[in-house]
What does this fold into?
Amino acid sequence: MDIQKILNKLRITELNEMQQHAAEAILGSDGDVVLLSPTGSGKTLAYLLPLVQLLDADSQQVQAMVITPGRELALQSDNVLKSMGSGLRSNACYGGRAAMDEHRVLKDVKPQIVFGTPGRLNDHLSKGNISPYAIQYLIIDEFDKCLEMGFQAEMQKLIKSLPGLQRRILLSATNAEEIPGFVNMSKKGTLIDFLPEKEQTSKRITLYEVHSPEKDKLGTLRQLLLGFGDESSIVFLNYRNAVERVSDYLKEEGFTISSFHGGLDQRQREDQLYRFSNGSANVLVTTDLASRGLDIPDIQNIVHYHLPESEEGYIHRVGRTARWDAIGRTFFILSAGETIPTYVEGDVVPYAEEAPQLTEPARPKMGTLYIGKGKKDKISKGDIVGFLCKTAGLKADEIGRIDVKDRYAYVAVRREKLQQTLRLTQGEKIKGVRTVIEPVR
It folds into this structure.
């Protein structure tokens, strides 16, 4: 494999230091590799360039599998490999389209590398669409994000189904709290860390203080949230009863919120988090329970209604915003006698609050449906999309995120279509089976 020819094709004069270290670790050892490097530093090429030197271009078997947390990264990585002109064949596999169509492509292309999301790759392996026996290399891109999104069980299942697996390569743009247990970081394992020295908070986060004229901060919180419009925001409090009190107040004021704390049962927690993560609620009112390890998308604003009780708690709270390469803001609401904690680093500036453009809370873009059937009932995302389009008259762009669990599913639909969907689907069958379909509030 002529690597210089590939670099010329990509118009790259030389590899950066991180890529050189990655190539040395992957080509110069037979152990697992964990690569930590900032977004935009070239991690995809860092593993693909040595990988293409290790694979057999004459084989018609999949030899390397790349797990990504979403279809966009799977497609992007697949396109990078194709642009290299290495002579290796590849395919991207992900949910949201028929697995049967992907199976036909796999049979036709006979790729040596497959990029995909954990659930779809497990599906192809279980159906025999991809043979596991020749797969020697497993790459997990954005592994910390995969863990955060709850893919660890699926990744463990996938790894157990690969009898010939020899090496694992993990990549991340952030320093995850822990390396997954299925990575062998013993004597042969190599950690390549090119992340900058840890900052308390990202430089992409702006810190503001907001002074409440009254000890009760509810009115100040209301005005602040009105100014945010439909931006996604988390309000942190220190106690469960305070979460309930603030939640009740905001609901009475017309805000569409999710409320989350340790006193809720599992179904209630899932309902509330799902509504927030899919855009059916603009505001999450929560204890520090939501400050780590949850599948929450990009958050624009973090509001400390109660001051964090420790520096560690503060770091985890603000870590919910400005993730990856996004920007964010964090707000400290201070009543008389309260001051910014001494452990908070960086400049905290007074919030020059403009008069809210909205006099009423912004309505969320989506609404959430609960469907009482799931994977164990042979229901897939494709089945749900087809059912909603055919029965409720929805268009594909009116359907948002779909999460299919073992015995039920959550579906986001455009808010203005929610009542129509409920009306037209009542008593109807999905894949020949009647089920409960109801809104999640």
About this structure: The domain at 205-350 is CATH 3.40.50.300 (Rossmann fold). The longest helix spans residues 71-84. The longest strand covers residues 205-211. The two ends are 57 Å apart (CA to CA).
